């Protein structure tokens, strides 16, 4: 798998190369750094020639130097003709991550430069995910890459379907609460519309929708579902038969 990097800070570019080469030496995956540059224009020329392997991994700094296209603009160029390659953003600004959703670039991940202790692991994880995607990951694992479009105010946010645990109606009118493995969100919307986003979502109660892949126990005595992290959601008799069928009970 080819890896292409555009990072305008030369020291951070060298560090990325060092980490990737170290990962490559220990990995069973066939990976190589095809391009590592500080210049967006050089990166753009390679994109035009399309001489890298299909399904490549792109690592892009969101904010590049003056008078250069941004990493977001480079990602848009990639996505015009390449929906399958993986894009990872490497940035100092955590608030910039939301822009990747606004641009609808289907980014695999974003890595914060300041999290030095953790970004080697994240780079390794991204390489593994990108490699599996390139090499035709079986359908059973595709959920890991599916994302859900959610609107929070004027922002369009995408969360991984695999991270979704459950949702419930909010005390605030016309809003629902969504709980994922790493965050809790309140958005405008309805459970009925959310239910349409995935076949893995089931209604267990008029006020709750769960991800059936997160269910650990169906407790018929207490009429509740026990999900990951010991999260409990009520089950109403109206939806019990359907829940049992969906979960294979």
TrEMBL record:
It comes from Bombilactobacillus mellis. Residues 2-128 form the Response regulatory domain. Pfam families: LytTR (PF04397), Response_reg (PF00072). The modification 4-aspartylphosphate is found at residue 61. PANTHER family: STAGE 0 SPORULATION PROTEIN A HOMOLOG, TRANSCRIPTIONAL REGULATOR-RELATED. Required for high-level post-exponential phase expression of a series of secreted proteins. Residues 148-249 form the HTH LytTR-type domain. Keywords: Activator, Cytoplasm, Phosphoprotein, Two-component regulatory system. This is Two component transcriptional regulator. SMART domains: LytTR, REC. GO terms for molecular function: DNA binding; phosphorelay response regulator activity. InterPro entries: CheY-like_superfamily, LytR-like, LytTR_DNA-bd_dom, Sig_transdc_resp-reg_receiver.
């Amino acid at each position: 798998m080819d890896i292409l990097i555009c990072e305008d800070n030369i020291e951070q570019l060298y560090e990325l190369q060092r980490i990737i080469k170290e990962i490559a030496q220990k990995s069973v995956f066939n990976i190589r750094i095809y391009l590592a540059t500080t210049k967006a224009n050089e990166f753009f020329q390679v994109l035009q020639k399309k001489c890298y392997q299909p399904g490549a991994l792109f690592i892009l700094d969101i904010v590049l130097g003056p008078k250069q296209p941004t990493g977001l603009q480079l990602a848009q160029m990639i996505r015009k003709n390449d929906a399958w390659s993986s894009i990872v953003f490497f940035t100092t600004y955590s608030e910039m991550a939301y822009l990747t959703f606004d641009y609808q670039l289907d980014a695999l991940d974003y890595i914060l430069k300041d999290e030095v202790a953790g970004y080697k692991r994240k780079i390794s994880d991204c390489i593994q995910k990108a490699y599996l995607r390139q090499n035709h990951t079986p359908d059973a694992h595709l959920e890991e890459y599916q994302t859900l479009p959610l609107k929070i105010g004027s922002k369009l946010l995408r969360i991984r379907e695999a991270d979704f645990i459950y949702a419930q109606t909010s005390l605030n009118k016309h809003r629902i609460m969504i709980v994922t493995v790493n965050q809790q969100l309140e958005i405008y919307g309805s459970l009925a519309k959310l239910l349409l986003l995935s076949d893995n979502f089931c209604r267990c109660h008029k006020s709750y929708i769960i991800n059936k892949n997160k269910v650990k126990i169906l407790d018929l005595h207490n009429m509740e579902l026990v999900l990951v992290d010991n999260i409990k959601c009520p089950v109403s008799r109206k939806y019990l038969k359907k829940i049992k069928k969906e979960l294979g009970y």
